[in-house]
Design goal:
single chain, 282 residues, alpha/beta, Rossmann fold, 2 domains, four-stranded parallel beta sheet, 10 helices, 18% strand
Length: 282
């Protein structure tokens, strides 16, 4: 009779696994942006395995109805553990430390509590890297990257960045970033939230105060989904474009997306690098 404990002979993968997490979208162009982020992190960390997961149940169900199965963060982490990865870094593709990030912490904490040498899942650990905005320095770095990529507005023009509700919560992060952007741009870049604070009414008052005539809108999200299109530039009367045009502003929408910004990608890559180094995973 073979009395060997088979658990001690499970093959483990020595590589670190990276899991990118985003809300998700059914928009084909935006889904390509997720693939672009995967490529960015694979190039930056060639010794790792890079996957992605979608937090939105609705998006995953819509994709599944078309025969495409995507993993939730819990499902993707379980897959990596079953495949033998013991060191996993979760990188949220989020701007703000909102509710979705807190849910990630809950999932990761539970899995870490279950781990151990003789326990299931038997991993060294799962750690979460930072979103774009965390501490004081990150706000400064993010503000500089945003201005560098999108550019400063021209005379009588204002850039309005609209945060859609994809990441849920963390309105205070927008207010803090607004202060830094004011310092960097003299008030020529305004942050709005849909819904939440700072809302359309707040933004309109500020536009009136600075005497803006032209407004350029841009979605303030790393992976723009249906909400971004509908709420920023949609034909519906409640969209930011419709509302501001109704108040007499000349409105355009930036063709640039933050997901295409090398500066923004570099911030997230550095965040993961620092997290991995601190925990001995990289």
């Amino acid at each position: 009779m073979d009395n060997k404990n088979k658990e001690h002979h499970i093959s483990k993968d020595p590589r670190t696994a990276v899991l990118l997490v985003t809300t998700g979208t059914t928009l084909e162009e935006s889904r390509k942006l997720i693939g672009n982020y995967v490529s960015v992190f694979k190039r930056a960390f060639p010794g790792t395995v890079v996957r992605f997961a979608l937090t939105s149940v609705f998006v995953r169900q819509m994709l599944a109805s078309d025969g495409e199965i995507e993993r939730s963060p819990l499902g993707a982490l379980a897959d990596l553990i079953d495949e033998g990865f013991t060191k996993i870094i979760v990188q949220p593709l989020y701007i703000k430390p909102g509710e979705d990030l807190q849910r990630l912490y809950s999932i990761v904490s539970t899995l870490n509590e279950m781990s151990g040498k003789h326990a299931s899942p038997g991993i060294e650990g799962i750690v979460i890297s930072d979103p774009l905005l965390t501490d004081k320095n990150s706000y400064i770095t993010a503000a500089d990257a945003i201005v560098s990529y999108l550019g400063l507005p021209g005379e009588k023009e204002t850039l309005v960045l609209v945060s859609t509700p994809d990441e849920r919560g963390a309105d205070t992060s927008l207010s803090q970033l607004q202060l830094v952007l004011d310092d960097r741009t003299g008030g020529r870049v305004i942050l709005g939230s849909s819904p939440g604070y700072q809302d359309q009414k707040w933004v309109t008052k500020r536009l009136e105060h600075i005497g803006a005539k032209r407004v350029m809108l841009a979605p303030f999200v790393l992976i723009p989904g249906n909400h971004s299109v509908y709420e920023v530039e949609g034909d519906n009367p409640k969209s930011w474009r419709s509302a501001l045009e109704g108040k007499g502003y000349e409105v355009s929408v930036s063709e640039k997306l933050l997901a295409d910004s090398q500066e923004i990608s570099n911030i997230l890559v550095r965040s993961l690098h620092d997290t991995g180094k601190r925990h001995g995973f990289l």
